[in-house]
Amino acid sequence: MIVKTLLAALVAGLIAGVFMTAAQELRVVPLILHAEEYEGKEPGAEPPAGATEGQQQHSSLQGSSLIGEILSAISPITPAYAHEGEHEEGGIMFGMSRFSGTLLANLVAGAGFGLLLAGASLVFNHPITLRNGALWGACGWLAVHLLPAIGLPPELPGFPAADLHDRQIWWIATIVLSVAGLYLIVLRGEIAAKIIGLVLIAAPHVYGAPQPSDISSPVPAVLGAEFAVAALATTLAFWIVLGVISGYLNDRFLKPA
Amino acid sequence: MATTTVSSVPLSINDRITAGILALLIGGFLVFGAGLANSAVLHDTAHDVRHSYGFPCH
Question: How much is the ipTM here?
């Protein structure tokens, strides 16, 4: 029974991961590729040719992404991939294409988030069903994406950022506190629990996320805004798909007869 | 524990907590590997995913 529960979560995560890959390729990855054209340049430097006029920006975005996708699908390693000077070594695992790397990482992350969602539901003793699956997913998105994004919005390559380790610690702490806070607000009836939940959710933001000292960036702000919305929208879709599929599988295969 | 019924029964409290913690541990490990692990190869493979999910990256 334990294995069945975990398998259902795993399968839901893998399906959501495939879905997420498609969603990312449509909107998010083109923005990342576009931002990488600016990455490493000095702030205020000349933008790459073809991306100067506001009117052209969107068409060039589409064009470059198409070419980028084709290139990345063909070549084992995309040159713009490793951020120059940051890594001694690197490259994509097993010499896969950039797209396969993204797909693999989405499958792993999807399975991971699926298991985390199932684990939370088991520990809190509130089963995920087809009826409440979307709500479970939405809460997962709140805890893992929207609430941490208040302090650390999704960044494009080339964005200024504080020390990586500090940000990861803050990010994880915010998720843990947000999960606890959401549990107290959503699943507990007492008024006191709801108030404590709000305090838990607010605490990391009152403390403050690690911020870079210099916020100038070579990447255009418009790209950053488009990317932040695209990233949050695709992850919301991912979590709702994950929650609904988890609920469906639970109803179908785990429900007591 | 030796009773095996054909229709699946709801998890007992112990089983539920065990399964829950197991799921959290494995899930956390997978998400850590895809999103946070400080390895150049893992980073490059999962690069676009890390950015898309808003994981702290670089």
Answer: 0.83
Q: Which residues of B touch A89 (CB under 8 A)?
A: 40-41
Q: Please write the tens of the pLDDT for every residue from A42-83.
A: 655 444 444 444 333 344 444 445 555 555 555 544 444 444
For residue B4, tell me if it sits in a domain: no
Min Cα distance A198 → chain B (Å) is 23
String of DSSP letters for A181-250: HHIIIII---HHHHHHHHHHHHHHHHH-----S----SS-HHHHHHHHHHHHHHHHHHHHHHHHHHHHHI
Domain-located, residue B2: no
Contact status of B37 with chain A (Cβ, < 8 Å): no
| B4-33 residues touching A, CB cutoff 8 A | 7-11, 15-33
* Residue range of the domain that includes B20: 13-52
Q: Is A221 on the interface with B (CB under 8 A)?
A: no
The model's pLDDT over A120-164, given as tens digits with 9 standing for 90+, comes to 999 999 999 999 999 999 999 999 999 999 999 999 988 888 999
Domain count, chain B: 1
The pTM assigned to this predicted structure is 0.81
